[in-house]
Write a structure and sequence with these properties.
- The complex is a heterodimer of chains A (448) and B (268).
- Chain A has 448 residues and is mainly β.
- Chain A contains 5 helices and 26 strands.
- Chain A has an 18-stranded antiparallel beta barrel.
- In chain A, a hairpin with a 3-residue loop joins β14 (223-231) and β15 (235-245).
- The model of chain A is unreliable at 150-160 and 171-182 (pLDDT under 50).
- Chain B has 268 residues and is an alpha+beta fold.
- In chain B, 17% of the residues lie in helices and 43% in strands.
- Chain B has helices at 2-24, 26-36, 175-181, 262-266; strands spanning 41-52, 58-69, 76-84, 92-96, 106-111, 116-119, 147-156, 164-172, 185-191, 197-203, 209-220, 226-235, 240-251.
- In chain B, a hairpin with a 4-residue loop joins β5 (106-111) and β6.
- Chain B is globular, with a radius of gyration of 20 Å.
- The chains are: A mainly beta (448), B alpha+beta (268).
Chain lengths: 448, 268
């Protein structure tokens, strides 16, 4: 209902002749690596987009998605659903702008994993879905942005001496083309983020069957956030504060009946202070994202959502003209992490199962977690071919994921991709839990 | 006696300089060349960027461009937002010229698929612009002081052959500038009358010609500045070409500085 309300607001404000329509069609086919080569997933998506443009500060945008999927985990399931990906209105003038609607808004600099992506949920129901397709928008009342270009003085010492022999320091009025941009948000509380039930729902693990009950959790409480941002010559820095919710829901074990565990999704409060930094060097780029998450677990007894620090560094190197290598160390530290508490909670099976499920699922299995990710990319816009190799290794838990992709663009509007994803790890780790999803895949995208 | 000769030589030097000096002063020529094309503001509603791929096919990208030149300087800010092909729709490039800044020009790219803004490393500014034969640096204004300029000769223009051109050789003063520009030296054919660029040749460290740029279809604006509507880049190393062509444009438009920010880059 909310979705249609947003569309109505947008349509109401535009003239038909100013609208532009486009779309795309995705078709993904995943086949299991092991076993008898069963089809794992068949996923088709049709995106329909309408854009409205009125000068540099007038924009309207709507994207609707029709998603049809067939999944063959342990039990065959298919679904056909329509959802509103994004619908927003952007207005502004010179130094200010306002954006409202259902918006995908990202904070932070790092790819693959970013602890400062606080406003977006992600659909992790499908393994190796494109980053872009995973994002889920947040219904946003407004995003206010204020931009200011300002002057500053830069002093340079010249080897010029005055008649009295004093060194003259010359200052130049220098315009730093920067934006000092506080963003203020207010969010109407509803989290659009399908839970990552891929690994747990309707499947059997160690003799237990996990049943997942979708509960469409609503927060009914607004979220707030602000980010102060400075863009310098070759660096940019942002500090931010956020009070809201984890946009990736946690699991709540509802009941344990014999060997059947029933789960639902649970939204947890979150307060975060963050810092992001980016510096461009001659041949490389450094990025740093740091989130300091305060304890908000009063209403939900899982120790891993206690106060913790989550930091990602990115070192991006250019190799030749067309290759890029990215290296991402990620550190998580839970100062109040109490493993004993989890063990002791065995007397309360539901609490214990909840904690264990989330612990493994969110890779929060120790007081300190170190993960490293890397990406090697061949990106050459003049070529019809693309390649990327991504790996993610949890140094603490020793589980890993390797994903390779090879893409070919026969025309301007078609992409074909062949790829594989391999998941492995010791028992009790996340990638071990989902290692049966190791697969080969073919993806195709058509733009129209 | 010696003092008298010295004075005569100095007088002769200044006299010659008055007669010919300004004409062939390479720094002045280069500066005039830069200023000739610096309209205060430009909004190109449709720019076509056509290029050949390795496969031999030609592809056209269409984009919208806003450019503003700062008052009292020649530095510009340029925002380009791609409209076609659909695959790259919404992709934006923000180029901010910083002139004398040690860090050089700033280039940022918005990738709608990631909804993130990416900086381009300094060395990538001498890399291909959107996969074409143009370097980013070909589309940015060089800072006069960053190069050692040398007047070569006055000759017929290469493109507008009915006109005469000054040929100026420019050599980057240090490694950083060379890295950003992508050429170890370059020659610019500067139109004698309008001071606009007519032709350009870029050379590598071995003195081998690696790139040529052909400038055509200039239109004079009310403020006396020129808008070049056509540039053809020929990459001699990879044997491919690209054409930058402004189809629709307007000048003297009111563009606020804040347009050249992440805010508008993110909302193409």
């Amino acid at each position: 209902m909310k979705s249609f309300f947003f569309i109505f607001i947008l349509i109401f404000q535009v003239k038909a002749e100013d609208l532009e329509f486009s779309g795309r069609f995705y078709s993904d086919y995943f086949q299991k690596m092991e076993g008898n080569g069963d089809i794992l997933t068949l996923l088709n998506e049709m995106w329909l987009t309408s854009d409205y443009k009125n000068g540099p500060y007038g924009r309207g945008h709507v994207t609707l998605i029709n998603q049809f999927s067939e999944r063959a985990t342990d039990s065959q399931s298919s679904s056909n659903q329509i959802h509103l990906r994004e619908a927003y209105w952007f207005i502004g003038k010179e130094n200010w702008s306002l954006k409202y609607g259902k918006i995908i808004h990202r904070w932070g600099k790092s790819e693959i994993y970013n602890p400062l992506d606080l406003w977006i949920g992600q659909d992790l129901s499908y393994i190796v879905m494109d980053n872009e397709r995973q994002f889920r928008a947040a219904p946003t009342l407004f995003v206010f942005n204020w931009t200011k270009n300002h002057h500053t003085k830069r002093c340079t010492s010249y080897k010029i001496y005055s008649r009295r022999g004093k060194k003259i320091k010359k200052c130049k009025e220098y315009k730093i083309d920067t934006s000092l941009s506080p963003f203020n948000f207010q969010l109407v509380g509803s989290i659009d983020s399908p839970i990552n039930n891929l690994a747990l729902s309707n499947i059997e693990r160690d003799g237990y069957t996990f049943n997942f009950q979708e509960s469409n959790p609503n927060t009914k409480t607004p979220e707030f956030g602000t980010r102060l941002y400075y863009m310098g010559d070759s660096f940019s820095i942002g500090i931010l504060a956020f009070k809201g919710f984890h946009h990736q829901p946690y699991f709540q074990v509802e009941s344990i009946s014999g060997k059947t565990i029933t789960l639902s999704d649970k939204i947890i409060k979150k307060t975060t202070f963050g810092l992001d930094y980016e510096h461009a060097f001659s041949n490389s780029i450094f990025r740093f994202d740091l989130a300091y998450n305060l304890s908000e677990s009063k209403d939900y007894d899982i120790s891993q959502v206690n106060t913790h620090i989550d930091a990602v560094m990115t070192f991006e190197f250019k190799i030749g003209q067309n290759w890029r290598f990215l290296f991402f160390p990620n550190f998580k530290y839970f100062p109040k992490y109490d493993k004993q508490k989890i063990i002791e909670s065995q007397s309360d099976p539901i609490n214990y199962a909840t904690q264990e499920t989330n612990r493994i699922h969110f890779n929060e299995t120790e007081a300190q977690i170190t993960r490293v990710a890397s990406a090697l990319r061949y990106e050459n816009e003049e070529s019809d071919f693309k390649f990327q190799l991504i790996s993610l290794y949890n140094v603490t838990m020793k589980d890993y994921m390797i994903n390779s992709e090879f893409s070919f663009s026969p025309t301007d509007f078609v992409d074909l991709t062949l790829g594989s994803v391999y998941l492995k790890g010791p028992k009790g780790t996340f990638f071990n839990l989902i290692q049966d999803l190791s697969s080969f895949y073919i993806k195709s995208t058509l733009w129209f | 006696m010696i003092n008298g000769i010295k004075i005569k030589i100095i007088f002769l030097f200044f006299y010659c300089n008055l007669l010919y000096g300004n004409d062939t002063n390479p720094d002045l020529l280069f500066s005039k060349n830069i200023r000739s094309g610096k309209v205060r503001s430009l909004h190109a509603k449709e720019v076509h960027l056509t290029s050949t791929l390795k496969s031999g096919k030609a592809k056209t990208k269409i984009y919208e461009l806003w450019r503003k030149t700062e008052i009292n300087s020649n530095y510009s800010k340029t925002l380009s937002v791609f409209k076609s092909p659909k695959k790259i729709k919404g992709q934006g490039v923000l180029m901010i010229e910083r002139g004398e800044s040690s860090e050089g020009n700033d280039v940022k790219m918005y990738l709608p698929a990631y909804k993130k803004i990416r900086r381009i490393e300094r060395s990538m500014q001498s890399g291909s612009f959107m996969g074409t034969a143009f370097y980013y640096s070909d589309l940015l204004t060089p800072e006069v002081k960053n190069y050692k300029h040398q007047f070569i000769k006055k000759d017929k223009c290469k493109i507008e052959t009915k006109k005469n051109c000054y040929i100026v050789k420019s050599i980057p003063k240090n490694k950083k500038i060379r890295e950003r520009k992508g050429y170890h030296s370059f020659l610019t054919w500067i139109n004698e009358e309008s001071f606009v660029s007519d032709y350009f040749e870029g050379y590598d460290q071995n003195g081998k010609k690696i790139k040529t740029l052909e400038f055509k279809n200039y239109e004079k604006q009310s403020d006396g500045k020129w808008v070049g509507k056509f540039i053809k880049a020929i990459d001699l190393k990879n044997k491919r070409w690209a054409v930058f062509e402004i189809k629709k444009y307007e000048t003297e438009v009111d563009i606020n500085d804040s347009l050249f920010s992440e805010r508008t880059l993110k909302n193409p």
